[in-house]
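Aim 2 progress update. The chain analyzed this quarter is reproduced below.
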Amino acid sequence: MQEVHLTVTDVLGKTRDLVFPTGMGLSLMEALKGAGYPIEAVCGGMALCATCRVDWEEGAVSDPTEAELDMLDTLPDFSPCSRLGCQIRLESLADGKATIRLNPSKT
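Predicted structure tokens:
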């Protein structure tokens, strides 16, 4: 897989289709920031703040780490589709595509 295709819905409901290269070790958080989305990433990708939270709508992805689950569990609006963008490597998208929604309370 040379690239990842993401469909991203922002907090205003606007949807964009984006393509990112793989093989550079980028996280989803870094890719979204690079695409101009207002992801705060206060903790710098350490799974300590949840300001990079997204709702995973479609696509196979790696399982969350214990650190990610611990952080998500502290959120009042945590749902089974919640993920931290900093903990997802673009290479972990099994089929090379995904659909996500940015979380309005964390961006």
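The mean pLDDT is 91. The chain has one domain: 3-102. These observations will guide the mutagenesis experiments scheduled for the next reporting period.
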